[in-house]
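INTERNAL AUDIT FORM
Audit reference: QA-55
Scope: verify that the stored structure record matches its stored sequence.
Auditor: D.O.
Record contents follow.
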Amino acid sequence: MREYITEISKYVITFLMIMYTFCSFLCLTDRLGKKKTIYIIQNLLMFIMQFFMFADLAVVSKDWEYVFFYVFVQVFLLAALVIVSAIYEKINRLLLNNMCMMLGVGLCMIARLSFHKAIRQYIIVLASLAGSLFIPWLFTRIHFWKKLTWIYGAVGILLLGAVLILGEVTYGSKISYTIGGFTFQPSEFVKISFVFFLAGALWEKVDFVRVSITAVFAGAHVLILVASKDLGSALIFFISYVFVVFVATRNYLYLLAGAVGGSAAAWAAYQLFAHVRTRVLAWQNPWKYIDSKGYAITQSLFAVGSGSWLGMGLLKGNPGAIPLVEQDFAFSSVCEELGVIFGICLVLLTLVCFLAMMKMSVQIKDRFYQLIVYGIGIMYIFQIFLTIGGGIKFIPLTGVTLPFISYGGSSALTTMIMFFLIESIYIRLQQEKERRNVNDTRRGKEGTDAAKPSRPKSADKSANPVQSSEKGARDSGKRGNPGGKGSTRTKRVTGGV
């Protein structure tokens, strides 16, 4: 019986994920009128898919812990959808739905890999949502974000420098420190201050001097990360800087300079760091080093290949054979047990989020907020590219997490803050559109009233202009001949001539 349930679940889960992804792409277009209906359909698909995923876990494992965890996850997802939509009516429902979908998938997969870590992740995600709810409220009441440009840059450098000096070494890199049993990775939080710094520095002036000063601050961020051997984060910061500068200046020379500088930096990193050379060798020919350098990437490729299109089913694969599977290779575990089709749909969902952000950035008139949305979008999609690309041997491994899917409290909190920052700017955009529509309506009404001709007072005294003219003619005749015969006499004289 259990075999039938797991086999049917594979097809149902894949079908539901395909339908959800299709609905997400539908919501990107402006021609669609009934988006609210599609948002509700997305929510239903998500909750049904969650039911089958956790039912699969509970049936195969015969462990009731999964049932209780399922209830807690569903309460969290339902509360996120209902509370956020109720507090902020103008929120972007597409981004909210996709965020909840990815969080649900991530919690389910982490629970499958390590139930203890899933509990920790759930607590962090719950606290992150509670804190992020205040972000749109703060954005509508605080208006001096643009004035803190250099503070953003200085705070980011100080936080990264503190980790370089005081941080703990994790897998050869100084990227975190632990407080009260919880490990924090400051480079994740500095992503937010870095984007605000770039937007504040470039929204008003984009001359060579301003770009050069911005490059000094950005270079300090990147160099500290390189010194900490956190090369994945350093690459994300560098790419974000290059593309935000390009968007702000529209100068292709900066884009070319970024490409040349990035290539030179990659070559230097290969020469300076042994672990970079190891990852490059493992990327070039992992099968040659399958028992050493290439073990992780070969196990990742085995997992993706063994999953095939529909997956082996939850708890039917062996993702635990991949080192650091909960963090660096979460996508491989998804493909192994939920299928390559599910993994492709997951990638497409992240692409939908990125496209929604880019679409929003085009509509924003305020340059500061436009650059913030663009910078967050670039960081988000490039991190996904690094994670998935490294896991499938498209690029060398970089050791960054998959947002909302991988285990990692700092990553989940930072990504949620980023999404709610985007939502805050979206709410601001909708409010501006409403004000413009109201002003346009008022101006149109005033123009219509001004264009109406004023009626002369004489017109008000007569209801019919024909009667008024006839009356005028009779009055004229009476004034010429009190007896009323003047007009007749004139006609006779004229006729005689």
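Auditor finding: record pair retrieved intact. Residues 457-497 have pLDDT under 50 and may be disordered.
Action required: none
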